[in-house]
């Protein structure tokens, strides 16, 4: 059994829900010695893609302790809404992970309503998740390159990200999968992006770049998820456990590394892009719809988002969402990032931060 | 190998006309009669692109044309004709606007050829570019960023959340000089808006 993360008042594990929180954060306030001081980075600082604050305790060069300060927190209400209206809000929790959020939410709803989903819908959802994974992993690598001031390869990667966005728009009508899924169907076809993966590989062979990432932000924690877990040797992937999605029929290869540092996380993401591209070539995607029978119930939906396990737990009553809980992968990853940072120096910060692929939008959302 | 030659061999090209057909978001047109329930009241007497979250609830009464949305530029300034520095500020977005904004620097769009740049400090900025709903503690951050930008300055509101709140929250309390609709706005819409705001006349 592996622990995945907190979802509302429960702890989600690979065996199902458990009462109570997973891990209690150790918050003992140890005071540092003479000469230490606190430094606030953010909320709106150059280099950060989103608004977020950090409180860093330091003696001057090395980071001794780091805390997350929430700024942009949003309250999003799902309770009492129809499934369709709730989905509109779920899609906008994290624009970069819309496919993961909407598919996980719809799976939770379908599980609550005990609906058998047609095979074509399953395949279409897998294709969306893989396209989203490719885009996100490219973005993480691009952000790390940009942090290292490797501007030419960074721009070449932005070009490829734009190619993926256009392919998503051609496939599903929207560059961020908004409206691609709806209660009772999917609207996507599949138009593959043309990517040049070998060029990214060659960039990652650069010694200067490697030196900045190796040994940076080492974290080996059995309570980790997604690429962070796989970069430290844990072969965790929700795609292997999924009963909803048909990944088991596709001989999925799960890349792992064993150093647990920022470089390992980048290597894992690069390998994932190749695997996702292979998988996409085998998928036959077309629009499909099915009927939603309305009944009351409770269900969980879980997918492997680009940053790891993402899950929804929903209760449905007379066609309306009574309550919904979210397990956002960025929440788990933020705990791991904060854990990995002490001992590093200030200039390590951006590389390590970007290598986790954390989205503040889903981390600071308050779901009601 | 030289990066420039490599880029050419890879087929990396800046697009002269960067307007790409994207169905959602794009201009909507009424194709047949009928009643619609719109979650953001974007459809009343007429279609208001600034309220629209392009959720497809109005299909098939309304249909997307694939034409890039037109930004509303209430004030532009030719002072910024040669160089226009933007300070992006995420007030509480889903991240979609942040990504689309970043992509205007991709080689396909290449914002620098129009003299548009990002800056990391509001003190060097010509415009404050706000994305997203108003987050819990962002009001003060927005006000302080706005105050330190030297005059003349412009305020650009990017995306439905920042303009009218959309479905997820309320918009920041600030008047925009440039309104860029879309959920999220496409890079083409953003670039059109920025070129107009700096006194350019490109489509």
Automatic annotation (TrEMBL), chain A:
Residues of the NADH-quinone oxidoreductase subunit D domain: 196-282
Pfam family, one: Complex1_49kDa
Record's keyword terms, sorted: Oxidoreductase, Ubiquinone
Keyword Cell wall biogenesis/degradation applies: no
GO MF, one example: NAD binding
Residue spans crossing the bilayer: none
Identification of the protein by name: NADH-ubiquinone oxidoreductase, chain 49kDa
Automatic annotation (TrEMBL), chain B:
Name of the molecule in the record: NADH:ubiquinone oxidoreductase
Keyword 4Fe-4S: yes
Residue runs in coiled coils: none
A Pfam cross-reference name: Oxidored_q6
Needed co-factor(s): [4Fe-4S] cluster
Keywords: 4Fe-4S, Iron, Iron-sulfur, Metal-binding, Ubiquinone
Organism superkingdom: Archaea
Similarity annotation: Belongs to the complex I 20 kDa subunit family.
Cleaved signal peptide residues: none
Organism: Metallosphaera prunae
InterPro entries listed in its UniProt record: Complex_I_20kDa-like (IPR052375), NADH_UbQ_OxRdtase-like_20kDa (IPR006137)
């Amino acid at each position: 059994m592996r622990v995945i993360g907190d979802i509302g008042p429960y702890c989600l594990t690979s065996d199902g829900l458990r009462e109570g929180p997973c891990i209690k954060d150790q918050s003992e306030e140890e005071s540092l010695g003479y000469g230490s001081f606190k430094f606030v980075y953010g909320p709106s600082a150059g280099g950060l893609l989103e608004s977020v604050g950090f409180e860093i305790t330091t003696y001057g060069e090395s980071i001794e302790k780091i805390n997350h300060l929430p700024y942009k927190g949003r309250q999003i209400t799902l309770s009492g809404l129809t499934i369709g209206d709730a989905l509109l809000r779920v899609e906008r929790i994290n624009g970069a992970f819309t496919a993961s959020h909407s598919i996980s939410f719809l799976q939770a709803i379908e599980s609550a309503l005990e609906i058998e989903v047609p095979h074509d819908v399953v395949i279409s959802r897998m294709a969306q998740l893989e396209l989203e994974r490719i885009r996100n992993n490219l973005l993480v690598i691009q952000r790390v390159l940009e942090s290292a001031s490797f501007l030419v390869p960074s721009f070449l990667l932005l070009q490829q990200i734009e190619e993926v966005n256009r392919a998503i728009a051609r496939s599903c009508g929207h560059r961020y999968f908004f409206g691609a899924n709806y209660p009772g169907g999917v609207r996507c076809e599949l138009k593959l992006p043309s990517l040049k993966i070998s060029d990214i590989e060659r960039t990652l062979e650069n010694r200067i770049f490697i030196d900045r990432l190796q040994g940076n932000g080492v974290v080996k924690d059995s309570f980790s998820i997604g690429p962070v877990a796989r970069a430290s040797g844990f072969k965790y992937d929700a795609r292997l456990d999924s009963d909803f999605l048909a990944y088991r029929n596709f001989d999925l290869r799960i890349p792992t590394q064993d150093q647990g540092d920022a470089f390992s996380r980048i290597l894992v993401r690069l390998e994932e892009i190749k695997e996702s591209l292979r998988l996409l070539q085998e998928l036959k995607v077309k629009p499909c719809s099915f009927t939603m029978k309305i009944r009351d119930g409770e269900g969980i939906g879980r997918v492997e988002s680009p940053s790891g396990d993402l899950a929804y737990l929903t209760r449905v009553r007379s066609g309306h969402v009574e309550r919904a809980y979210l397990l956002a992968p960025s929440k788990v990853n933020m705990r791991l990032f904060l854990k990995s940072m002490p001992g590093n120096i200030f200039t390590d910060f951006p590389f390590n931060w970007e290598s986790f692929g954390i989205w503040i939008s889903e981390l600071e959302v308050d779901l009601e | 190998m030289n990066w420039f030659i490599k880029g050419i061999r890879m087929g990396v090209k800046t697009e002269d006309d960067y307007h790409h057909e994207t169905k959602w978001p794009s201009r909507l047109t009424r194709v047949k009669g009928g009643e619609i329930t719109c979650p953001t009241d974007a459809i009343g007497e007429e279609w208001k692109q600034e309220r629209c979250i392009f959720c497809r609830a109005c299909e098939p009464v309304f249909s997307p044309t694939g034409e890039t949305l037109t930004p509303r530029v209430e004030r532009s300034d030719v002072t910024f004709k040669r160089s226009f520095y933007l300070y992006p500020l995420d007030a509480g977005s889903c991240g979609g606007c942040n990504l689309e904004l970043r992509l205007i620097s991709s080689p396909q769009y290449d914002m620098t050829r129009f003299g548009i740049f990002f800056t990391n400090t509001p003190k060097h900025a010509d415009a404050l570019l706000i994305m997203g709903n108003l987050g819990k503690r962002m009001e003060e951050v927005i006000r302080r960023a706005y105050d330190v930008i030297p005059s003349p300055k412009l305020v650009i509101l990017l995306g439905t959340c920042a303009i009218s709140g959309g479905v997820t929250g309320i918009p920041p309390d600030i008047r925009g000089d440039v309104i860029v609709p879309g959920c999220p706005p496409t890079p083409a819409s953003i670039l059109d808006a920025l070129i107009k705001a700096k006194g350019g006349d490109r489509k």
